[in-house]
Amino acid sequence: MDTLKVIKIGGNVIDNPEALEAFLGMFAAIPGAKILVHGGGAIASRTLLRMGIEPKMIEGRRVTDAETLQVVTAVYAGLINKSIVATLQKNGCNAIGLSGADGNAITSRKRPAAPVDYGFVGDIEKVNAKTFEALLAAGMTPVVCAINHDGCGTLLNTNADTIASGIATAMSGTYPTELIMCFEKDGVLMDKDDNSSVIEQIDKPLFEKLKAEGKVNAGMLPKLKNAFDAIDAGVKKVVIKNSARLSDGSGTVIF
Amino acid sequence: MDTLKVIKIGGNVIDNPEALEAFLGMFAAIPGAKILVHGGGAIASRTLLRMGIEPKMIEGRRVTDAETLQVVTAVYAGLINKSIVATLQKNGCNAIGLSGADGNAITSRKRPAAPVDYGFVGDIEKVNAKTFEALLAAGMTPVVCAINHDGCGTLLNTNADTIASGIATAMSGTYPTELIMCFEKDGVLMDKDDNSSVIEQIDKPLFEKLKAEGKVNAGMLPKLKNAFDAIDAGVKKVVIKNSARLSDGSGTVIF
Q1: Which residues are A181's β-sheet partners?
Q2: How far apart are the first and last CA of chain A?
Q3: CA distance B231 to B165
Q4: Which residue in A42, A152, B27, B196 has the most C-beta neighbors within 10 A?
Q5: Kind of pairing between the strands at A95-98 and A141-144
Q6: Which three-class secondary structure string do you get for B28-40?
Q7: Interface test with B, best of A23, A102, A131 (most B CBs within 10 A)
Q8: What is the pLDDT of residues B14-71, one digit of tens each?
Q9: Is the sign of the CA dihedral A40, A255, A100, A60 positive or negative?
Q10: Distance (Å, rounded) from C-alpha A244 to C-alpha A186?
């Protein structure tokens, strides 16, 4: 069976219309089965402010009260998701936008209110591989936002990196699966201020060594942890790379 | 082949959480293939006002400038669509939300700017029956909002009644199809102020007679015209009925 690519983009490309257009052109041109997962960028925060709602963050994570959930659902699953889908269609890619509620694709459990009450934030319970398989088999390309549901009628907000890695893990039971995490740098950097210092490959021993030597910066640690979790769970490889360089062989391969 | 039911709900039920919950419970319980089409109700106008954008209407139709398009896309395809999908999932119905861009389900053409410039408003060009067939075959129930696309990357806003009748017409090539248009009255009324004066059946000769006698009120005329257009195009029957009475045999049957 051909390889399935699960590709995640975040705020740096979503907040820049030209970069997003260029990225989606490259994404559409990738042959074979693929799934796109997108974050929400700063658009949700700007929309909240414009509606007179103060965005609340605790340690970089959004606190999602009932009103904020309505806005992020509108922005992620509506505005951003449908703009991406329409642009992919223009590029000849038969995209279909999904929240986790659609086709019961992803169920999650509301995070406990203690020690920190993040509100309507979910931790993934199950990715329904059959839904994705049915859409892929019908020649469609799922485009997934970070909104999902608890199966009891409540929508929940989840980190998009976690959604991407959850989908890749679940799909690795059916397809040889690659997870491609795009961000604004060319890969995992030896020197975080030098974009040419990309580490081409990282296996677990090297990761442990880099960690022990303090050479992995704080922002990259959860991404790498996420990547190795996916590898441990059956994903063939994880690539961390620049969204502007989707089509070339650049980036850091985690295996 | 079993009958496909295309059911449309509008603002009267979407704006009332209890009525919507009750309606979706009844909808979920309908056996067999079905498609739900929903309008946006007053939520879009309230959201526009809260964002400091004055809603513009000409003869009851929304003028959709670029900023308004973003808001209605967020509200219809995001907030309302995903709330409906999550509630249907809770009720055991495997719903999947769609705009016309998703799976290239519905393409439309931007309405000419003369004589009235409605902005990003589309007239249906093509309903892609294959997309709906693939989803129904996979055991999913499409839930469609009134946002669609031109195939060139632009999202467009279309009247939800038109979307429902366009879908029913396109699907009648494959399935015996019924179109059920729900609103706040018990059917087409002989006396618009008397909810017990429902006309049980209307065929074309009766429609012409009622029209000639001035017995069809202005608000009902486009609905009936829409219904007969669908019948002429192959839809088996059209039922105009109360969304609160989805499950019973009430309403007006157009044939």
Answers
A1: A8, A240
A2: 20
A3: 10
A4: B27
A5: parallel
A6: HHCCCCEEEEECC
A7: A102
A8: 999 999 999 999 999 999 999 999 998 789 999 999 999 999 988 878 899 999 999 9
A9: negative
A10: 9
The answer to whether B179 and B134 are in contact (CB under 8 A) is no
**Residues of B (124-153) whose Cβ lies below 8 Å from A:** 131, 134-135, 138, 140, 147, 149, 151-153
CA nearest to B55, candidates B75, B38, B72: B72
Q: Complex ipTM, two decimals? A: 0.96
Write down the residue that tokens 């019924």 correspond to.
Answer: B178
Q: Does pTM top 0.90 for this prediction? A: yes
Q: Show the tokens assigned to B106.
A: 């519905």
Separation of alpha carbons B162 and B233, rounded Å: 13
Task: Give the span between the Cα atoms of A237 and B244, in whole angstroms.
Answer: 52
Name the nearest CA neighbour of A183 among A18, A10, A5, A6: A10
Instruction: Specify the amino acid at residue B129.
Output: A
Separation between Cα atoms, residue B230 and residue B167, nearest integer Å: 10
Tell me the sheet residues that pair with A96.
A142
CB count in 10 Å sphere of residue A66 = 9
Domains and CATH numbers, chain B: 4-254 (3.40.1160.10)
Distance of CA A144 to the CA centre of its chain: 8
Q: What is the DSSP letter of A198?
A: B
User: CB atoms < 10 A from the CB of A105, how many?
Assistant: 25
Give pLDDT tens digits for B220-244. Answer: 888 899 899 999 999 999 999 999 9
Selected for mutation to probe chain B from A96, A140, A157 (highest B CB count within 10 Å) is A96
Q: Are B75 and B46 in contact, with CB atoms under 8 Å apart? A: no
**Contact between residue A179 and residue A227 where contact means Cβ atoms under 8 Å apart:** yes
Closest CA to B50 of A83, A77, A75, A53: A53
CA separation (Å) from B18 to A65, A72, A164, B25, B244?
21, 23, 35, 11, 11
Complete DSSP assignment for A136-191: HHTT-EEEE-SEEE-SSS-EEE--HHHHHHHHHHHHTTTS-EEEEEEESSSSSBSS
* CB interface of B with A, residues 71-110, below 8 Å: 73-79, 81-83, 85-87, 89-90, 94-99, 101-104
CA B142 – CA B134 distance, rounded (Å)? 10
